[in-house]
Design goal:
Strands 4-1-7-8 form a 4-stranded mixed β-sheet, with no helix packed on it. The protein has a 4-stranded antiparallel β-sheet with strand order 3-2-5-6, with no helix packed on it. Helices cover about 45% and strands about 10% of the residues. With about 575 residues, it is of the alpha+beta class.
């Protein structure tokens, strides 16, 4: 899978050396692929089909390049390279031919997409068909309506709170279903990519700079946390809950999330609950728990703001100006991130370095993976961080680097604050749908333009590249843009128009902590996975990823039917 066979035929009298680099590896050194020490000899080697490769044929000592080309090889294809002299003895040509056509590696994905679309069409058309059969006259057409939710009946970030449970029992339509749907959609994508994503590279995290599907999931969660914190805390404060009570709940939930994260990422069947031999301190739930605590603290201290009765010049931006203390805090946090990232001296590394190290940047900064972010983590946590970063295979790095490290947590809070802004918009303009959607669109445009400027609309050459490992500022802007757009779309379809009830995503969305922890602990066991027999293509890996994801959706649906919601 993701491999092709390349046969090199050397028809020169002397030996040759074939090297390669991937176009996804920024300014990387050429890596040896195969060496033919004798003239008139052949050699076979496998090459990756994930990214475009640039291959170079040189003399055996590597000092004299003979020919060079770039190509994206097809999966399971067989190719031949003939290195031979032309009519003029000093001219060398490299002739490329296809011995066996590659397979269509995207065919399994296309078939799966068609099947899922058909299932979705049947699922949504069945109620209409049933009503038509009952009436034998017409199908009821859903019409536009006002949002059917109340600020007093929304759930907090990773669980269904007691207030939300009571409200859902009274009237299910009172919940902001689009937020539950957004959470469930993010969680479903997370389960799918964590189960391998069918082996497709774009369902795995980017090696360093750039974006893949997997890079969207966690920022969406953080955005949802921010939105839920504003809605839930405002509701509790209006009910008269004291700040001390809020602080107790906030601290308890944050600590439990962090402990759950620390325990289950360090669990192994051999070492038990805590594998101290390779314990990792940072993690996804740890970051989410700490981010939730910071966002909740901001909302608890300065969150409850009543809309002024008299008109003022800043009224069109009241959802911003009324929360100026929070903006000051966020600006200070971001200033701290920028100063540490670009001004902190890192031993034996250039100040402000944002690269992956290893063979990147000409191999000059091999031990500088992540720059200041990696240095701070290694200084504070030692080896108790992630030892297999996404850049390790492509960039040949040797330094550990944690994508949930200390410095990136600052921008995680900033990302959550964009979600808080969405929550404030929903509160201030809840009776005016057009105003909500306009403000969502404006924020999406502002954040998108900011990301484009910082990254220069390139993957590697911007002022601050889009990078999930570093949680760079451009990455936060880009993810904030996508979050506003996606939440706005779901808000229209689910809450305003009522065209969609959020199924099936709303079920895992209302039991997210159970699904997240469960799929992480049980993903390696049957029936969620099994030892695959056909790993040479994407058919079985894709089926296994979809099967495991579907099982967790079904489990979440059964728990929903039983009114079981895991709360913290």
């Amino acid at each position: 899978m993701d491999k092709a066979l390349l046969v090199v035929h050397n028809e020169l009298p002397n030996g040759i050396r074939v090297s390669y680099i991937s176009d996804h590896c920024y300014k990387c050194l050429y890596q040896p692929l195969v060496i033919l020490k004798d003239g008139h000899s052949d050699a076979s080697v496998t090459v990756s089909t994930r990214f475009i490769l640039t291959l170079s044929v040189d003399t055996e000592n590597g000092n004299s390049p003979l020919c060079r080309w770039s190509q994206l090889y097809g999966e399971a294809g067989q190719y031949s390279i003939w290195v031979q002299q032309s009519e003029h003895p000093s001219n060398i040509t490299c002739f490329h031919e296809v011995d066996k056509d590659p397979v269509n590696s995207y065919l399994p994905l296309l078939v799966a997409a068609v099947v899922l679309i058909l299932v979705a069409v049947l699922f949504f058309s069945w109620p209409h068909f049933y009503r038509w059969q009952r009436t034998s006259k017409h199908v009821n057409i859903l019409c536009c309506r006002s949002p059917q939710f109340s600020v007093d009946c929304v759930s907090t970030h990773f669980h269904q709170s007691e207030d939300a449970t009571n409200c859902s029992r009274e009237a299910k339509s009172s919940r902001l279903r689009s937020l539950d749907t957004f959470r469930g959609f993010s969680l479903t994508v997370m389960v799918f990519v964590n189960y391998g994503g069918g082996g497709y590279w774009f369902f795995q995290h980017a090696p360093w700079n750039g974006l893949t599907v997997a890079d969207f999931v966690m920022p969406w969660f953080v955005f949802i946390i921010g939105t839920s914190v504003v809605l839930a805390f405002t509701s509790l404060q209006r009910k008269g809950v004291s700040r001390l009570q809020l602080l107790r709940k906030l601290t308890w939930r944050s600590v439990v999330l962090i402990l759950i994260g620390f325990c289950f990422i360090n669990y192994s069947p051999r070492d038990g609950l805590l594998s101290w031999s390779w314990a990792r301190v940072p993690g996804v739930l740890q970051r989410l728990g700490f981010t939730y605590f910071c966002l909740g603290l901001m909302q608890m201290i300065t969150g409850l703001r009543e809309i002024p009765l008299q008109q003022r010049w800043w009224m069109p931006l009241q959802d911003v100006f009324l929360y100026w203390p929070q903006w000051v805090f966020i600006l200070l946090l971001e200033t701290l991130w920028l100063c540490l990232t670009f001004l902190l001296p890192v031993p034996n590394c250039p100040t402000g370095y944002l690269g992956a190290g290893g063979i990147g940047d000409g191999g000059l900064y091999a031990n500088c993976t992540g720059g200041a972010a990696g240095y701070i983590d290694r200084w504070l946590l030692g080896d108790n961080i992630y030892r297999h970063p996404t850049c390790k295979e492509l960039y040949r790095t040797t330094q550990p680097f944690d994508p949930e490290g200390v410095l990136g947590t600052i921008n995680s809070i900033v990302m959550g604050f964009t979600g808080m802004q969405a929550g404030k918009i929903l509160l201030f303009y809840r009776s005016r749908n057009c105003s909500i959607l306009k403000r969502f669109l404006v924020w999406a445009i502002l954040l998108g333009v900011g990301a484009a400027i910082l990254s220069k609309c390139t993957r590697d050459q911007g002022f601050i590249p889009v990078n999930k490992n570093l949680w760079s500022l451009s990455y936060v802007f880009c993810m904030g843009c996508s979050s506003f757009l996606l939440l706005g779309l779901m808000y229209v379809i689910v809450d305003i128009k009522g065209w969609w009830g959020g199924q099936p995503f709303i079920f895992p969305g209302m039991n997210s902590i159970f699904v997240y922890v469960g799929h992480s602990l049980l993903g390696a066991y049957f029936p969620f996975s099994w030892e695959m027999k056909f790993t040479e293509n994407h058919w079985e890996p894709l089926f296994q990823s979809l099967w495991g994801t579907t099982l967790w959706i079904c489990i979440a649906y059964l728990l929903y039917r039983k009114s079981f919601f895991l709360k913290i």
